[in-house]
Design brief:
With 94 residues, the chain is mainly alpha-helical. The protein has a domain of 64 residues. It is 59% helix and 4% strand. Strands 1-2 form a two-stranded antiparallel ribbon. β1 and β2 form a beta hairpin. α1 packs antiparallel against α3. The protein is elongated. The model has no long low-confidence stretch (mean pLDDT 87).
């Protein structure tokens, strides 16, 4: 009889999606609060017209917070992507 050795498999649990406030993670919360503070400053200084001029910025912030890829929002991917780009630039990926 031959002894068949199977590789060990490990199954990790699903990544927790609980957030700090309203289901938002810390990076999502920081980005959202910064965008809201900028919106408030814009409305106070230039009025509604200035806030409407920054519509592409609000759409970008909304996309970073809401769109998910592999269980993480795009803003949660930002530190991972930046770290990889830095390692790639310095040649540490070889």
């Amino acid at each position: 009889m031959s002894d068949l050795v199977l590789p060990l498999t490990i199954k990790f649990p699903h990544r927790s999606r609980r957030g700090i406030l309203l289901g938002l993670s810390l990076p999502q919360l920081v980005l959202t609060s910064t965008a809201l503070a900028l919106l408030l400053a814009t409305v106070v200084s230039t009025g509604l017209v200035g806030a409407l001029a920054l519509t592409p910025l609000w759409a970008g912030v909304g996309a970073l917070v809401v769109i998910r890829r592999h269980g993480r929002s795009l803003i949660d991917w930002a530190p991972i992507v930046l770290r990889y780009a830095q390692r790639r630039q310095t040649g540490q990926t070889l």
